[in-house]
Amino acid sequence: MKVQFKEVSKQFGKLMALDSVNFTIKPGEFVFLTGRSGAGKTTALRLITDYYRADKGEILLDNQRLSQLKTKQRLSKRRRIGMVFQEFKLIPQMTVAENVMVAVALRGAAKKKRHQEVEQALRLVNLEDKMAVFPAQLSGGELQQVCLARALAMKPDLLLADEPTGNLDPASSWELMNLLIKVNKQGKTVIMATHNVDIVNSFATRVITLEKGKIIGDKKKGKYQ
Ligand SMILES: Nc1ncnc2c1ncn2[C@@H]1O[C@H](COP(=O)(O)OP(=O)(O)OP(=O)(O)O)[C@@H](O)[C@H]1O
Ligand SMILES: [Mg+2]
Predict the structure, then answer these.
(1) Structural domains of the chain ordered from first start
(2) For labelling alongside 164, which of 57, 89, 190, 202 has CA 20 to 30 A away?
């Protein structure tokens, strides 16, 4: 999916969380969105998912202006976007497989194929042996992997990850990064918000840097290492 911000501003009271932001992310790109706490990273991701509306400017997904889409079209766009957030938002009363099944069912996959798709998504994140386990029995890294599996089960064109390594130790963080790269290599656009400088510097991919709601850097370095 292609993502464009044209002069996008978002205000909370007097605070400019995003201030005339412009960028174009091409289909299949891997982009880090970085900047200090409060820079506007999460706000930018929430504008893409239509959780917030822009006060000024336009957001375009695959060349379509979000503001001009009807509710139904907005929802169908929204279903093309997978999200991995720091707070896991898994359903505690459901097993790992059941949590992923929710996403598979939501996407409207044929009933016969659902179980197979759940397995497929969990295999991708190397968690197929934890299918019958409940979220409370998993480590932070494993929970994050389930969230990624759930996002991928939606078969999105765009994956948004908001500080996905925030709760993880370095080894688990690298594992998650490898998974995100694997997903990107399948052709999905990936936007990852993080203030983990080590991770950002370890990959030669595009970095958009925000400060107080403004873009202060947009460097294209190459792809991966
Ligand atoms: N719903 C909201 N209501 C009021 N202010 C908000 C809201 N969401 C964000 N803000 C403010 O907007 C600014 C940008 O917040 P945002 O969450 O986008 O930052 P961030 O770059 O994601 O930070 P972090 O790295 O800490 O996650 C902050 O000053 C924040 O306090
Ligand atoms: Mg944030």
Answers:
(1) 1-80+160-225 (3.40.50.300), 94-155 (no CATH)
(2) 57
